[in-house]
Amino acid sequence: MTTIKTLEKFEIAAKSEGFTMNEDKCVYSAATLDFLGYRISHNTLSPGPERLAPLLNLPTITDAKSLKRIVEKAFESLKVEPANAAIQVIDENIPFTVETDALDFAISATLNQEGRPVAFHSFTLQSSEQYYSL
């Protein structure tokens, strides 16, 4: 079945269930799509331009108070960055690479394919676990 036939069947089924579609907002056969603040393309989900605009449009820092505020915000953002990073869809035909890091107080890992992340994991060690040998 062709994509056009599938789309026509979808539209008929949607209309029969009472759904309406605004043709001005419909996108067909697009290589990329911006949706709910993310850019979706073949096997990739990344932050959309409107999510990046506040960072890209930051004014130049001219005083210590502003610098401190920006550094604090950057640190808070950095803590959640893995959740917003572009995640590659897993392809079971491509070999996996695991990268790990262990500190005195935390352990983290990423699962990668061709150098791109597909999963993240990290946790903080309990005080008793901090004495385990690695």
TrEMBL record:
Residues 72-133 form the Reverse transcriptase/retrotransposon-derived protein RNase H-like domain. SUPFAM superfamilies: DNA/RNA polymerases. Coiled coil: none annotated. InterPro entries: DNA/RNA_pol_sf (IPR043502), RT_RNaseH_2 (IPR041577), Viral_Replic_Matur_Polypro (IPR051320). It holds the Pfam family RT_RNaseH_2. It comes from the Eukaryota. This is Uncharacterized protein LOC115214395. It comes from Octopus sinensis (East Asian common octopus). The gene is LOC115214395.
